[in-house]
């Protein structure tokens, strides 16, 4: 039986504080305020080290940021799609996590600023991910690229892969899904079973965000909820989740469906971890182990 580190309690508070930043009690925040609060909170609490090399980039009309730690390879690339339930989140806010990934994987990271809902509903985010990936492969061999993301970004990563396959594009070497949200119908049982355990994800909150993203579109559409997509032919995939994650069912069902489709899947479910926990590598031992697993997976597959 795994021993849960004492840092788990402050890690839970870490996420609870993020929820508080996104849901102020004294007023209804505007979209701009939500996005600013999210980015400021992330840059403060998951800060990028001063030595991280960053460069803004225009990926065929999609803004992004190159992030690379000194001494890491420029020949291996993680194409990263941030979380934020399709409504908040930014490349700049995720630079701290990109630094951890760059160091662990000996790789550069391309963070993509796909368009957000509700101004840009589905499939705008998928279209942006597709455009940016196609821009990337003009100069980087697909066999040296790993597509990755967390939460909504992980679902977007799977949607990207199926779109690439259907279009006949060359697929990347592998994929990584951190606490993935891949079912916008919210049919997973762990939303209710883990409601008191996960300090971040909730059925009402995600239902509101799914509505903002879909705006009346079919939530079972494969490009919106890739859990329901044909996953045949997708590259080897690493999926990380925790037993206290409200989205645990999304992770385990994605792993099951991918395996049934013949995909090589590595599923790591860590005791008492919750949504987005691998991003807390600065102080949470389980997160550091997860980042090292991601890094080794990227090295092995590229």
Polypeptide structure, described:
By secondary structure, the chain is an alpha/beta fold. It has helices at about 10-20, 30-45, 95-105, 125-135, 150-165, 190-195, 205-215, 250-260, 285-300, and strands spanning about 55-60, 60-70, 75-80, 110, 145-150, 175-180, 235-240, 265-270. Helix 1 runs antiparallel to helix 2 and helix 3 crosses helix 9 (about 285-300). Helix 5 links the parallel strand 5 and strand 6 (about 175-180). It has one domain: Rossmann fold (3-Layer(aba) Sandwich), CATH 3.40.50.1820.
Which structural class matches the secondary elements? alpha/beta
Give me the oligomer status.
single chain
Q: In one word, what is the shape?
A: globular
Mean pLDDT: 94
| Unreliable runs | none
Name given to the CATH architecture = 3-Layer(aba) Sandwich
Q: What is the CATH fold-level name? A: Rossmann fold
Measured as a percent range, the helix fraction is 25-40%
Q: Care to count the β-strands?
A: 8
